[in-house]
Amino acid sequence: MLQVNGIEVVYNHVILVLRGVSLQVPEGGIVALLGGNGAGKTTTLRAISSLLAGERGKVTQGSISLRGERIENSRASALVRRGLVQVMEGRHCFGHLTIEENLLAGAWTRRKDPAESERNLQKVYTYFPRLRTRRDSRAALTSGGEQQMCAIGRALMANPRLVLLDEPSMGLAPQLVAEVFGIVRDLNRQEGVSFLIAEQNSHMALAHAQTAYVLESGQVAMHGTADQLAGNKDVQESYLGTRAGERRSFREARA
Question: What's the structural domain count of the chain?
């Protein structure tokens, strides 16, 4: 479904953030993008979803293809219409709008078909029953977990085939993290939605993904199946927190 080939991303014409990043997301797959702060996870997602321009960033080399068609120079709105949607880090709900108004905002590209929007809204409420009970509450007055569910639900209102999730566990209690990832798993299995998930919570990401890529300093340091990476001693020490003492980089772990 998605093919990223050797992309480089530069900010402000001078700051090289990504160097030769390549990855694939198969149709109907869940792929994890792992790494610490500053590794390049968010930049990778923004490059795919064409949201770099707002940060003065640009893909300067390489290519990005969606179902075989180049998209690195596409408008973000055009990608949403083609079924690629990103859920930003930090949720970014419209605080002054109700939960349901936030969800309906996600259906803007489908506004010519009110019946489809209504079906998608009911589907979101089926997967996120908590949102149904809070549908008339202002988003700013809901919990962090409810806002994260709202952000994912808003993305689903566009009827996507590929969702880019940026740090969905950030700031959430472990029980809510498990609930959110469980819904991602159900959406993947029951609706066939593909996911590329940028996450620091490697345990949770690897438990739900089929394959994973480890980013470090803007480069892919390692990739493989989720089971392979979860069982890799170097990855465990560097990213899964199983080594006592201060955290080492992946390259230090391999040395």
Answer: 2
